[in-house]
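Worked example

This section walks through a single chain of length 269. The input is the sequence exactly as stored; nothing has been trimmed or padded.
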Amino acid sequence: MSREQVLVTVPPRSLPALRGWEVTPAHLAWQLGRGPHLYRAADASALKGGVLVAGDRRYDGLEGTGTLAREFVRECQNRNFTGAILDFDRRLPALGHLARQLEELFRPRGWTLFVPEAYGPALREAMVMIPSALSGGSLEQRLQEAVERYGAGRVTLALQKSAEDFLLPAPTGSGSPLSPEELAALQKRLHPSVFFSDPLCARYFTYMEPGGATHFVLFDDGDTLRRKMETARKAGITSFIASWAEVEPHGRQLGLAPGTWEGRRMAGG
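Given that input, the structure is written out below as tokens.
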């Protein structure tokens, strides 16, 4: 039996608010950039412990990654980090090569590498992040397929507090994102009947525009995030990643905030 691991991505300025939570901080303070180099935010100089998070929005993918991989190792060593999350939005050959280099460099040090799902098949040991938000299908089936492909020990559920407004029919499976304020305003205006989707582990409601167009609104709250974690546990998954901004209002409900323990119980216990 293995203890659950919950990583919460957090900017340096918000780190004090995470004190006392039963989580591992994942520091949102690094970006890949020209050189190529790993650039650190100005307010990250004193960070110690936890996990490094690196984005790719400043990286052009045109240069080699050997120096970049060594900079990852140096940052982790200097800060007593136990691994890194590659928060990559793009799939570039150079980024895939970097992920393979980091997997090799992290292995002898006992560090953990977390990668987006698109990079998982090319790696042997890295944790593969599976997003929790779906617009169709079944979360249980989605996670079971991931477990069958990678093994439960390599799957991390990336919790997403999502809200989208779909104009039906929605052949692409994508809707218009709603901010928490927009969702609240829409519900206040419509007073809709809200339902829960067991396959998606999300709440939803429908409404019609004056011209007759039908909308389907799918969204998460603290309860749906909790149910998604429970679905992952049933599949044998014990690793979770979430954003501080999204889980902060639901810390006790998820068993992560001070004074709670349920979310950190022994897997299967």
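What to look for: The first strand starts at residue 5 and ends at 10.
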